[in-house]
Design goal:
By secondary structure, the protein is an alpha/beta fold. The protein has two domains: about 140 residues, Aspartate Aminotransferase, domain 1 (Alpha-Beta Complex), CATH 3.90.1150; about 220 residues, Aspartate Aminotransferase, domain 2. The protein contains twelve helices and twelve strands. The strands form three sheets. Strands 2-8-7-6-5-3-4 form a seven-stranded mixed β-sheet, sandwiched between helices. Strand 5, helix 7 and strand 6 form a beta-alpha-beta unit. Helix 1 runs parallel beside helix 11, helix 3 packs parallel to helix 9 and helix 4 packs across helix 8. The protein is globular and about 55 Å long.
């Protein structure tokens, strides 16, 4: 049986690889403490569940959902952005519901790239960003994210010949996996850069609320208020603990929204209407649930960083996201896959190897803070034994 060559770059995936490693560890009798996947263990807020439950008994919500039927959710998105970021948004032309933001980042390249066109991607970066480019037949230019640059790409380093073939740039701050935050001034420079070179600017924004300090994390649309070149993706998975409901949205330039809508129309209809009702209730309701989630992950961050320091592994304290991005001990600095494979095999503690997010991630490991403090302390105790 013959398959498309476009599948070749998709054979390796950091999450699938670690899933196999966890399976082997279970076969060896290990009890897994899974810190490899950023899937929140916290419950979805009660008022969101109530909105979904009320829809379930309404037969009118049980059929296919076309675009016009998503109006209530799109209005909630537009109002949320206006209230939070001071940006006026047209819910009819500048918002598109998605089955999780990963759907958007994976499908948008199909609307932008011709085979051989270049996408400018962060290295390290989230795997689906590259996957969508490969499926579209595009090529990737990796923008290195280095600690000495605050894990921000140096746009001036991109060669002119590369820029001539570039059609899209993907950014994502607060950043997974490095936890870095980008200031508004950087976004303004990126917008001007993309305007100059006729490049679509994509911003993946799942951790916009997951900030542990008084730092103001900007939306890309605050740097591109006219929405000239920009589109932003947001998910309900992190702020509202709705990962399993698979609901997110795209917001921004109306031509990009329309193009993504055309691709989406070929692939699916929309998420179940009841879930959209729940997401609208989340965006339109009181936001103490978001603060509670952020406070919980801040406590976990402090517990984990302190515990690592206690075993002699000093790591930076992140200002955002739900991760710890840790530089590996010298013995493992060139083999993050080996570290994570051996760690889960010998201790049951699962983490994500930095190289799984790109070549510049080698020498690092990402821990997801998706367990209560006592279990995080237990994980560090096991790591200490392993080291």
């Amino acid at each position: 049986m013959r398959f498309s060559q476009r599948l070749q770059p998709l054979k390796s995936n950091v999450f699938a690889d670690m899933d196999r490693a966890k399976g082997r560890a279970r076969e060896l009798g290990q009890k897994i403490i899974d810190l490899s996947l950023g899937s929140s263990d916290l419950p979805t807020p009660a008022h969101v569940i109530a909105a979904i439950q009320s829809a379930l008994i309404d037969p009118s919500t049980h059929g296919y959902l076309l675009f016009n039927g998503t109006r209530l959710f799109r209005e909630a998105v537009a109002n949320w952005y206006t209230n939070k970021y001071g940006i006026n948004v047209d819910p009819e032309t500048e918002v598109l519901p998605l089955i999780g933001s990963q759907e958007g980042t994976a499908h948008l390249p199909l609307a932008i790239l011709e085979p051989g066109d270049i996408a400018l991607l962060m290295d390290p970066g989230y795997p689906s960003h590259a996957g969508g480019v490969y499926l579209a037949g595009g090529e990737i230019y990796s923008m290195p994210l280095l600690a000495e640059n605050g894990f921000l790409p140096v746009l001036a380093d991109i060669p002119p010949a590369t820029l001539a073939k570039s059609r899209m740039m993907v950014l994502s701050y607060p950043h997974n996996p490095t936890t870095a935050i980008a200031p508004l001034a950087f976004f303004e420079a990126a917008v001007a850069f993309c305007q100059q070179h006729d490049i679509v600017l994509v911003h993946d924004f799942p951790y916009g609320d997951m900030v542990f300090s008084d730092i103001q994390v900007p939306s890309i649309l605050q740097a591109d208020r006219s929405k000239s070149v920009s589109i932003e993706f947001f998910t309900m998975s992190k702020s509202y603990n709705m990962g399993g409901f698979r609901i997110g949205y795209a917001i921004g330039n109306r031509e990009l929204i329309q193009a993504l809508r055309q691709v989406k129309a070929v692939v699916d209809f929309n998420q179940y209407l009841g879930i959209l009702h729940g997401a609208a209730a989340a965006l339109g309701g009181e936001q103490s649930c978001v603060k509670n989630t952020v406070d919980t992950f801040k406590q976990r961050r402090d517990t984990f960083v302190k515990a690592l320091a206690g075993i002699g592994w000093d790591v930076p304290t992140p200002d955002a996201t739900m991760y710890i991005w840790a530089k590996l001990p010298p013995k493992w600095e060139h083999d993050s896959i080996g570290f994570c494979t051996e760690l889960v095999c010998q201790t049951g503690v699962a983490a994500s190897p930095g190289v799984g997010f790109g070549k510049c991630g080698e020498g690092y490991v990402r821990f997801a803070l998706v367990h209560e403090p006592a279990k995080l302390q237990l994980a560090v105790d096991r790591i200490a034994t392993f080291l």
